[in-house]
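Private note to self, pasted from the team thread so I don't lose it. Backbone tokens:
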């Protein structure tokens, strides 16, 4: 007869071992959870390393899954109209000239006449200038980029800034290109959003990078943090000056302004979207900055500021009746013209955007343009404007893919709709239009140069390209 006592003892031992092992695993898990909770709540090492790894992994997953189709990038918006090209042109009231704009459908810019005919076009992908010196080792595909800003230099050549979707930093750099879209120089610092060209050919630009420094008494500014810099480039594209904008603000009398940032902005605290050089002409009547200073716009803080590039300090800053603003321009009379993206609440049917002219001494609104139920005006992000020589204002309504010129009384005397269209993959039967981030009217000798040498194949091509 088998000895069952040995079997029972063995079975009891195995059960006990399993219970002990289970209890040990549960105990280790509980201890690990407790330690993890302590590390996270107390923010002790290796809290930051774990947080950084999690954020990097999340960003990579989002890039691989969300940014797969060009039409799903935020460079495209639902088309509000079937109209394309120039739809309004009052020859007696509009400022004659050529209009330069860049479009969200790729790294290119178009120069059109007042009837929408293509006078010239530039195209150059980022892959044509990228090399091992770039801080972006694995850039996005060319079709996932566009020229956020393209401006004509005094010599008639073009300076452009590359912006990518689904990457951080999203500013990829700048280049100066000739009429044949060949690079004259390239700057592979992480330039983003905007730049300003001085009469002597120097370029004032914005760059961004991750920083890991901390500031006393401002624990909300946790590293890693995407910080902005103001840089000066020589006429041949070499960096000759670089100033940390956040340091310049923290070390100024306006440091407390950073404490009122919205919760979502602490990792990109300033989100600087504009840099305008104050020259002798604009400095003459502007009490808050001198020639050589730059005007900056901090979108999420709602701040317009002046940075002294020599002292590396913010010398003036203000907030006003605007929300998510872009492109504050100091006018010759000392007032400031800006695009108020989301601050028009009085009439939602008219859109939430407006153009404001502000007296900086009082923040009083001295002029404004806003839409109406028939001409909705709305661009929640991006956009800019330009005060023209005849007193009209050229406006870039980015999200609508529209350019419009308005008089002092608010009459639209010229209007252009980006003609490019694509099918909306998420809404069958609907169309998308690429954003127009920035535009400028060229009415000086540079316009005459392009008119006199425009290729015959381009003249007479209406509506700036074919709708797609």
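Design output:
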């Amino acid at each position: 007869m088998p000895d069952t006592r040995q079997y029972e003892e063995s079975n009891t031992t195995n059960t006990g071992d399993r219970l002990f092992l289970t209890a040990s695993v549960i105990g280790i898990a509980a201890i690990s959870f407790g330690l993890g909770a302590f590390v996270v709540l107390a923010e002790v090492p290796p809290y930051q390393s774990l947080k950084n790894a999690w954020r990097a992994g999340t960003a990579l997953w989002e890039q691989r899954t969300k940014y797969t189709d060009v039409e799903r990038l935020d460079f495209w918006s639902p088309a509000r109209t079937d109209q394309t090209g120039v739809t309004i042109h009052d020859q007696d009231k509009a400022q004659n000239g050529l209009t330069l704009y860049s479009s969200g459908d790729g790294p290119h810019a178009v120069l059109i006449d007042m009837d929408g005919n293509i006078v010239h076009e530039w195209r150059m992908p980022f892959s044509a200038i990228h090399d091992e010196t770039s801080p972006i080792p694995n850039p996005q595909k060319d079709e996932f980029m566009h020229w956020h800003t393209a401006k004509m230099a005094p010599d008639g050549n073009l300076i452009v800034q590359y912006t990518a979707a689904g990457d951080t930093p999203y500013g990829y750099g700048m280049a100066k290109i000739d009429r044949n879209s060949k690079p004259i120089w390239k700057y592979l610092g992480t330039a983003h959003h905007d730049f300003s060209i001085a009469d002597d050919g120097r370029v004032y630009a914005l760059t961004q990078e991750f920083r890991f420094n901390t500031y006393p008494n401002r624990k909300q500014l946790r590293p890693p943090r995407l910080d902005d810099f103001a840089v000066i480039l020589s006429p041949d594209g070499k960096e000759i000056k670089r100033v940390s904008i956040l340091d310049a603000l923290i070390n100024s009398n306006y440091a407390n302004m950073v404490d009122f940032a919205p919760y979502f902005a602490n990792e990109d605290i300033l989100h600087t979207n504009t840099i305008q050089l104050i020259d002798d002409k604009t400095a003459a009547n502007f009490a808050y900055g001198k020639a050589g200073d730059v005007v900056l716009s901090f979108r999420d803080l709602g701040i317009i500021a002046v940075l002294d590039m020599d002292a590396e300090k913010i010398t003036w800053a203000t907030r006003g009746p605007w929300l998510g603003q872009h492109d504050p321009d100091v006018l010759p009379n000392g007032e400031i013209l800006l695009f108020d993206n989301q601050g028009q609440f009085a009439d939602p049917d008219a859109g939430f955007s407006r153009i404001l002219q502000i007296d900086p001494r009082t923040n009083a609104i001295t002029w404004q343009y806003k839409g109406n139920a028939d001409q909705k005006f709305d661009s929640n992000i991006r956009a800019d404007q330009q005060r023209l020589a005849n007193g009209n204002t050229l406006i870039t309504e980015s999200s609508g893919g529209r350019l419009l010129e308005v008089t002092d009384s608010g009459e639209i005397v010229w209007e252009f709709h980006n003609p490019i269209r694509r099918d909306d993959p998420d809404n069958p039967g609907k169309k998308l239009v690429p954003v127009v981030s920035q535009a400028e009217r060229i009415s000086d000798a540079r316009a005459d140069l392009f008119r006199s040498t425009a290729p015959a194949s381009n003249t007479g091509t209406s509506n700036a390209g074919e709708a797609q």
